[in-house]
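Entry 14. Two folds queued back to back today. First construct below, sequence then structure tokens.
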Amino acid sequence: MLLTTLLLSIYLAELSAIIPYDGIIHRSTDGSSYAFLSPPKSSNHASFIEQMTPSGTLAVAWFSGGEQQPNCSIAVSLLELGSQQFTPGVIVSERVNYSNQNPVLFWDSETQILHLYHTQQLGHLKEQYAEMWHLYSATWSTPEIFYSTSGAWDRNRIIHTYDKGGLIFPCYNSSLNHIDDYSYILRTPSLTSKWTRIDIKRSDNLIQPTLIRLNNSLQLRAFFRDKRYQWIYYADSNDDGLTWTIPKPTSLPNNDAAVQAYTLKSGAIIMAFNNLNGTARSPLTVTLSYDNGITWPYHRDVQIHDDDNVTYIGEYSYPSILQTSWSGPDDNDIHLVYSYDRQTIKYRRFNENWVKHGQ
């Protein structure tokens, strides 16, 4: 009887420790806030966050249903300004027997339309068969082919051209057995013009570029994931993305996993990445640079182990980050989403000083 009671107590304790994936935002003792989003399917990955202005609503997209699996779908969750709970993830793009992956959101402030781009290939097929598709809100249009070249993949944020009239879309090529993976950009001078492809020379094994505009000028800096598990690399363009320098390594390690950079209001660049070499995807770290990405003096780990099990080091990867025009009741305005053990998408909110004080 005593043993039965003890086992029941242990079971109830474990049950109460299960994390609810309900989208509710909670305050942490370290000054940040967090939430676990509510996914529509199992196996969730590759989230992306975007702000819709002037409402301030946050949109988060990710793929749900298993990488390269048939019927893997794109889900979207929203957080309205002032709300303390994300909406449940809703499937907005799905195709029978196909795998939809790597969503990228882009908010067009002029037309007030939220655009969604993602890849698509038959389930169980390799990445070299993927194409890129496009749909848009408010009631979500029917997805249409955007870029039909096989092996075309997206991951990171679309930015405006310097004159604000066009767009620059960072992309990459995924090949058979990854023997010819490299990066390129798609560029259009206006939203009604044709997209032009510009390959980034000698970017072999460097993929998923994330773009930053330096000093509000024509100069762009791209940071890359390294499939050789070595370093985050960077390349520069001095003519708004028309030509690029040969990529060079930064001082930041890379584990062949996605990174994302963003320019803060202060002018600092914040980078979210896994701070290690090798194949592990922990810790997930944010770092700050005040010299356009040459040095990174401030680091803070965002996730090292599971929240409900300090002895389990899982996968915390594929981050997406931005700073909003508003702050929450916690005085935080930097928003980060990432894969949490591929069970769900986790949301963290903090500010620039929070990163600095993590040293």
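Second construct, same run, same settings:
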Amino acid sequence: MFKVSINEVDGLYLELFRIALSAEDNEARVEALRYVKHVVVAERLKVLAESEGPGWASEPDNQSLVTWSAQTAAERDDAIYEFSRVSRTYEDRNERRLNIAEHAGKLVYLSILEGKRQGVQTPTGILHQVTLAGKQHGIRGAKDKDTVRRSWGAYRGIVHLGMAMDFCADQPVQPEEVLFFAERIRRVLSGSCPKGTSEPYVPPEAQISFAYESGIWGPRFRNRGLPYSVGD
């Protein structure tokens, strides 16, 4: 299982992390998540320039940050371009597939909480329910059980983030609370099995975990959230 650390500034861009998760497999998702880290740094630098004015770059206390920013500019530009490609694929194709998988994940999660622990591919199970809803509401990509099955199979290891974001959408919660909820969902999905089986709904090795870790450092607010690296 791959773990992604999210700090205070990253937390303001959770939707971008969700888009990164729409990539085709975990290897591509991990790479896309690193692109997002670069996008976040670029946005943070933009905010600094706009809020502090051009003078902040010439202040002695900020020289190490300015140097680091210049040295990593090319890598950051490449990452921003690559993430734009991920975003286009998301808009063209993968958003629909991810939405379907997240809806299936919600049904699985609620089934676990209610003690039903329904099967996923049984005749009246989770995928059947998603397909019925797709037909009733004319949802493209959700009207065929095989298509729904492929979407769930492709994304079941990462649905917990989008599920948590959706569950918390109408509540006044901080990004770290969304991450805590996502981690709770992840553990439930990987720690529960359909009734009569011994295989979890989602194998832990297929999952990507999001951990909140504070990135605030240094005595000056303007430098917070900008470590001199882009970590996992």
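Quick look at the second one. The first strand starts at residue 2 and ends at 6. The CA atoms of residues 93 and 166 lie 20 Å apart.
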